């Protein structure tokens, strides 16, 4: 749907018409600048900036995502399994679909993952030096030019890099799966006492973030154009949707539906008085969130091309359905946190949740592609999957991709005004 804005704007940049800007575009011009640089200014008349040629840019960025994913997975997996998992993630349906269109999503994901690869070391590797941090900051600036919310993921990389630095020094007690009040206070104390050293080593990563905050203050909004349709709203139900999709796509043989994990969750809830009080309170919060803060943006209600239109109208628009799903959302969030903490520290998981919250909750539109960065980032840091799980998930993703592409290409429909429309994520 957004190609009707992105393609003409990229073609203007190819023609060196940098002063012409579509006020409906909400993102910075990172995608258009990259397309222009790849082709050369003034070459649009030779067909290099046609719609199909521009779509190849996202195929290029998709290969980049695959390569960087492999590098991140290679830190803890053997080469063959890292390659297989990175290929599996390239088939993640929502990410795969937008590799075939001219959208900002794939390039945005590539630059975010590249920052994470540059500034955070693998196990047993030395902490990045000043040169790598400077390169990471420049890469982060490019990421923000592709999508504004990447400023949050740049802070995520800063936070995880700072956590690894502290864990490698005298603050080794910050490691471990659990996140207790004592550990949070210790983490806050460590950040305060080590703030000068951490800022000297990692502070360049925050420069693009500070510049972006300055832009928001000057602009009065996060987005460039179309402010009225992109106002910030407390859409807390986004975290419930993220929990559901991440839990559903993280494993097969040891999935969230496994009796072992269900029983472990029930024991955590009912095994002690403290666990019961905590789980009951958490469930009450989730019920309140999905009942009161499940928002329906006008774009969602008006555009019947997107699957979310039907998901909302037939299911999620009914308050009782949202309330019934609340325990499943709570379980999905617990499952993700537990599985992630098996491979990462509990504080790393907390930083991931904070980043997901800051990027998703202010967005009033129910849009699956908004979850992609958080989902892929979590998948890249999960436990080691078995070959059976990798193969099964890859085949499942491939099946979904074939179906959605077939529907998109071969099952168009017509609006009352005669305009053709296609079903898509």
Automatic annotation (TrEMBL):
It is found in: Endoplasmic reticulum membrane. GO terms for biological process: dolichol-linked oligosaccharide biosynthetic process. Its EC number is 2.4.1.256. Pfam families: DIE2_ALG10. InterPro entries: Alg10. GO terms for cellular component: endoplasmic reticulum membrane. GO terms for molecular function: dolichyl pyrophosphate Glc2Man9GlcNAc2 alpha-1,2-glucosyltransferase activity. The chain crosses the membrane at residues 94-114, 129-146, 198-218, 265-290, 347-366, 386-410. Pathway: Protein modification; protein glycosylation. It catalyses: an alpha-D-Glc-(1->3)-alpha-D-Glc-(1->3)-alpha-D-Man-(1->2)-alpha-D-Man-(1->2)-alpha-D-Man-(1->3)-[alpha-D-Man-(1->2)-alpha-D-Man-(1->3)-[alpha-D-Man-(1->2)-alpha-D-Man-(1->6)]-alpha-D-Man-(1->6)]-beta-D-Man-(1->4)-beta-D-GlcNAc-(1->4)-alpha-D-GlcNAc-diphospho-di-trans,poly-cis-dolichol + a di-trans,poly-cis-dolichyl beta-D-glucosyl phosphate = a alpha-D-Glc-(1->2)-alpha-D-Glc-(1->3)-alpha-D-Glc-(1->3)-alpha-D-Man-(1->2)-alpha-D-Man-(1->2)-alpha-D-Man-(1->3)-[alpha-D-Man-(1->2)-alpha-D-Man-(1->3)-[alpha-D-Man-(1->2)-alpha-D-Man-(1->6)]-alpha-D-Man-(1->6)]-beta-D-Man-(1->4)-beta-D-GlcNAc-(1->4)-alpha-D-GlcNAc-diphospho-di-trans,poly-cis-dolichol + a di-trans,poly-cis-dolichyl phosphate + H(+). The keyword Glycosyltransferase applies. Belongs to the ALG10 glucosyltransferase family. PANTHER family: ALPHA-1,2-GLUCOSYLTRANSFERASE ALG10, DOL-P-GLC:GLC(2)MAN(9)GLCNAC(2)-PP-DOL ALPHA-1,2-GLUCOSYLTRANSFERASE-RELATED. Dol-P-Glc:Glc(2)Man(9)GlcNAc(2)-PP-Dol alpha-1,2-glucosyltransferase that operates in the biosynthetic pathway of dolichol-linked oligosaccharides, the glycan precursors employed in protein asparagine (N)-glycosylation. The assembly of dolichol-linked oligosaccharides begins on the cytosolic side of the endoplasmic reticulum membrane and finishes in its lumen. The sequential addition of sugars to dolichol pyrophosphate produces dolichol-linked oligosaccharides containing fourteen sugars, including two GlcNAcs, nine mannoses and three glucoses. This is Dol-P-Glc:Glc(2)Man(9)GlcNAc(2)-PP-Dol alpha-1,2-glucosyltransferase. It comes from Symbiodinium pilosum (Dinoflagellate).
